[in-house]
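Project outcomes to date are best conveyed with an example. Our students and postdoctoral researchers have been running inverse folding experiments weekly, and each run begins with a structure described purely in tokens. The record below, which covers 384 residues, was selected by the lab manager from last quarter's runs and is presented without edits.
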């Protein structure tokens, strides 16, 4: 098939890179489950799976095209991709700017591990471009963003931040996991590097650990041999094959996640036992217009604050039947987690995360069933 033509995102997910002629017409390309490639009688360009593998390359081609980037590299986990992206731009004694409510393991990596190398991080709200610009120092090497932000779902202005960074020679990195490449493409706004935990929506079946980094060909070639190759963080071929499988249904799944997510968000916003809902797809979200300007859709992630004490909220969580309790998201199943249930008032003020905050990931169950489950368990919370 002609890979030089303009492809829709649905066509990218279903066909781009599959190269049917190369693989004997197989509609599902094979898994190259091997470590090395011999080349006595041919020059095919492959040597070792830690460097490159045909199966992994199919996933990389699809994701690069979805993001509008030159190339992509797959990693063994989301954190492998995130840390590789950061380490590819950082230097000893440099400075990083990052939103405070970024994915907790990312924050921990910057706030603790990288201090060993003299790397300092300034954490900002992310909502104020002026605050972010004021945090820039002469040794600032990178601005790391995540929009929407984990748990609180506030946004950062990608166009404005990219323009500020480029004027000062600072590299920008964005975690685009929540929006996926279907609903947001930071590269188009001037961002240098995009990372994903492909464990989430891209995989979609809660059965792989996977990460992706996308950007320029020059940067990706360097990462292949340095941060990915040297650290051994390459995705294995079977995981790559499963990721390709997940990508084939990504457009369908994201449409359903978004449709159900918006219905559940509206339901919770109108519920008498819910104090507050955090979802960028709601007109009540304070950054709704910014979201509309840089996102084409929303996912199935919602946070809300129930009207109840800690004990009542625990009872509400335990009383749910369709929602399983767990820390991840983006799969076919609906999940509930409680990142704000155990924080004190001081931490809440410092981070901007409301006390008693609950996060739900809307899966592929019927939205009416999910609403009934939430409504029934919220009513039970009131009786406790």
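After processing, the design step wrote out the following sequence:
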């Amino acid at each position: 098939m002609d890979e030089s033509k303009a492809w829709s995102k649905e066509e990218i997910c279903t066909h781009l890179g599959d190269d049917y002629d190369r693989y004997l017409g197989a509609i599902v390309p094979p898994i190259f489950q091997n470590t090395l490639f011999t080349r006595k009688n041919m020059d095919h360009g492959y040597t070792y799976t830690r460097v490159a593998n045909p199966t992994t390359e199919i996933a990389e081609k699809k994701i690069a095209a979805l993001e509008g980037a030159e190339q992509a590299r797959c990693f063994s986990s989301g954190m492998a991709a995130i840390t590789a992206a950061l380490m590819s731009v950082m230097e000893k004694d440099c400075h990083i700017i990052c939103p405070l409510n970024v994915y907790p393991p990312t924050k921990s990596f910057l706030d603790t591990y990288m201090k060993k190398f003299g790397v300092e991080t300034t954490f900002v709200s992310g909502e104020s471009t002026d605050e972010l610009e004021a945090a820039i120092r002469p040794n600032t090497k990178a601005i790391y963003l995540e929009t929407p932000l984990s748990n609180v779902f506030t946004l950062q202005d990608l166009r404005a931040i990219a323009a500020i960074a480029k004027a000062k020679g600072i590299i920008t990195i964005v975690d685009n996991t929540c929006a996926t490449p279907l609903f947001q493409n930071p590269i188009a706004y001037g961002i240098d590097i995009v990372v994903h935990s492909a464990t989430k929506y891209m995989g979609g079946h809660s059965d792989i650990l996977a990460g992706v980094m996308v950007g320029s060909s020059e940067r990706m070639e360097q990462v292949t041999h340095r941060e990915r190759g040297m650290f051994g963080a390459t995705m294995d071929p079977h995981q790559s094959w499963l990721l390709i499988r997940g990508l084939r249904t990504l457009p369908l799944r994201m449409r359903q996640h978004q449709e159900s997510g918006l219905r559940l968000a509206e339901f919770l916003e109108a519920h008498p036992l819910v104090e507050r809902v955090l979802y960028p797809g709601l007109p009540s979200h304070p950054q709704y217009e910014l979201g509309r300007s840089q996102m084409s859709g929303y996912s199935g992630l919602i946070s809300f604050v129930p009207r109840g004490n800690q004990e009542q909220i625990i009872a509400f969580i335990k009383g749910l039947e369709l929602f399983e309790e767990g820390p991840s998201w983006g799969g076919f199943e609906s999940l509930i987690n409680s990142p704000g249930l155990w924080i004190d008032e001081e931490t809440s003020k410092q981070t901007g995360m409301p006390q008693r905050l609950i996060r739900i990931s809307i899966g592929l169950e019927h939205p009416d069933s999910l609403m009934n489950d939430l409504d029934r368990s919220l009513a039970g919370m009131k009786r406790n």
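The chain has two domains: 9-248, 250-383. The first strand starts at residue 71 and ends at 75. The training component of this project remains on track.
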